[in-house]
Amino acid sequence: MKTRSRYRLLGGTAFLMLLGSVTYSCSDFLNVLPQGTVDQQTLTSKPGVEGTLLAAYRMLDCTTSLNDNWGCAASNWVFGSVPSDDAYKGSEASDQPGATDIELYNWLTGEAQSYLNVKWRAMYEGVFRSNATIRLLRKVRAELPKEISDADAAGIRGEALFLRAHYHFDAYRMWKNIPYYFEDDTTDFRKTNVGVDVIGNILKDLDTAIVLLPATHRNGQVGRATSWTARAYKGRVQAYAGMWDNAVATLRAVRASGVFALETSVDHVWTGFSQFWNGKETILAYQAAANDGEPNGNNANYGERLNFPHSGSPFGCCGFHQASQNLVNFYQVDSITGLPLAVTDPNWNARDSTFVAGKRTPVDPRLDWTVGRDGVPYKDWGPHKAGWIRSPSYGGPYSPKKNVHERASGAQSKVGWEPTQENSVKIHMFRYADALLLLAEADVEGTTPDLTEAATIVNEIRARAGKTAQGCGAGSTDTVLTNLYPACLPATNPDADRIAQPLVAVSATFDTLTEPWARYKIGLYPVPFPDVAYARRAVRFERRLELAMEGQRFFDLRRWEPAYVDSVIPGFIAKEDTRRIFLASAATFAPRHHLYPIPSIQIELSKVGSTSALQQNTGW
């Protein structure tokens, strides 16, 4: 990492922030009007400090200074979904070969290294912007003691420390063995990654942030970190580090606080409708903003722009991040209990054919909030069609869905590279359902397992999933839809225009046969779980069902015991390469794949003389 380039990036960012030429990451407090030119005296001020802090938030997703590929996407779809059993890279073979190499575990190729380097660079850019905020705050407080109030100073420092912890943690999930940078690391950035207590440092930063931050958003501006944001994130870090008893204590306190809650319906979580943005389920999200005055749409969902159906669809491009057949099959449920079929049937993944509309196999309703499949309404864009797929033989027949805006939401951009692919859908990086499932996992794995709380939490999430399913969405306005499904005509269905259709509760399960494209069913687990092994499987299955296509799956697989990921991924490849033949060329999944390789260019840049400060991860 070159000291000179870091100073240039940080200084340039601060000026951009104060000029207001870019709207940064958290809606509401980032719509800054142009202020005119800026000099060093203006920077050494409260607006200068606040601007530098906003620049740190902005690194939650790709920026125009670093967007030479999609490895910096806030959702981690390249690194958290594509190498897992959830998704294929999608599109076609020749597009984005770096993402193909990530999918095939060929992580030392030049293209894969480019992706990995973008991720490394983005995470440490976030770290350095956070540290620049702390340094500038200290300078302003020393030179102009009355410029920033004690309360604002505490909040600014707390937010910067929280962001510093987040960026280090995101890098930790990728590489584990990373250097940790503090605000006074300004003379030589060539720090070692050997013997660094990364988790300890992250937790120290979060503990300090918890003390400094207010319990509610500073200035009433949504998107800013609060003490509860930091506390929930602390529980996340503890769970990832296997500090189960500590995670139980932290996440139970978060749950008991009532600060966060599940959205009332799954369709309110990933949405373009502004009334559901930053609801109580949001802990940390990239606050994508379309039509905010930025002329190229770069404050919208930049990192997700490839992940829409291709030409022939309303979006026009580009067909990446396609759900795997394995994932679609995983949403099948037992016709009696409504529990995942994978719980009761070891042959749950046998279906090789396209899971199109009209199949009577009962499925979890979250399938059609997660995956676009032929004949099923695609939110309110009419039925998903085979012609929307860029290369079915390569990427399969399914489209991503969570990141897509609703037509009626008004969230679509009016400017940019492909405006139909740009929107204001907030990209969840950590949400309350994730935190609850981490608590359930900690309940199972802790010193004294609490199988009652674990089952109660899983059932709470399943009960929410059972409230609504994909509805007609467009009603009489879409003749293709109504010709296919006359039940979507208002004359026969007063709820024809509903995107989300309430499910019908029957006995102990939620079940509906009213939708012609699917039979939705979901059941609840016994409380308590009968034993630890059953509970562990149920919690892990629920994490996949709830968080699929959100860039979490591969990180989950790798943090569980090595034998688990070492069986799941090879088993996935062995089956999927009969469905997607390109997967037959995947490298053999091995222990070295438990961590990504540190980008070779970063190891080279870390040299002091002929010795590299950064040491490569084992096996690479």
Write the layout of secondary structure elements.
Blueprint (H helix, E strand, L loop, with lengths): L2 H17 L20 H4 L2 H13 L18 H5 L5 E4 L6 H7 L6 H34 L6 H26 L22 H15 L14 H14 L3 H14 L24 E5 L33 E4 L1 H6 L10 H4 L17 E2 L3 H4 E2 L19 H4 L3 E2 L26 E5 H14 L5 H15 L2 E3 L8 H6 L15 E3 L1 E3 L2 E4 L6 E4 L9 H16 L5 H7 L2 H15 L23 H6 L1 E2 L2 E2 L8
Parallel strand pairs: 4-12
Antiparallel strand pairs: 1-3, 2-7, 5-6, 8-9, 10-11, 11-12, 13-14
Q: What is the topology, as strand order, of the major beta sheet?
A: 4-12-11-10
Number of helical elements:
21
| Average of per-residue pLDDT values | 90
Q: Gap between N and C termini, in Å?
A: 20 Å
Unreliable parts: 1-38
- The CATH topology assignment of the largest domain is Serine Threonine Protein Phosphatase 5, Tetratricopeptide repeat
Measured as a percent range, the helix fraction is 25-40%
Number of strands: 14
Structural class, from secondary structure content? alpha+beta
What number of structural domains do the residues give?
Answer: 2
Gyration radius (Cα, Å) is 24 Å
Tell me which CATH architecture of the largest domain applies here: Alpha Horseshoe
Question: How would you describe the overall organization of this protein?
Answer:
The protein is α+β, with helices and mostly antiparallel strands. The chain folds into 2 domains: 245 residues, Serine Threonine Protein Phosphatase 5, Tetratricopeptide repeat (Alpha Horseshoe), CATH 1.25.40.890; 277 residues, Serine Threonine Protein Phosphatase 5, Tetratricopeptide repeat (Alpha Horseshoe). It contains 21 helices and 14 strands. The strands form 6 sheets. A 4-stranded mixed beta sheet has the order 4-12-11-10, with helices on one face. The radius of gyration is 24 Å and the shape is globular. The two termini are 20 Å apart. The N terminus is likely disordered.
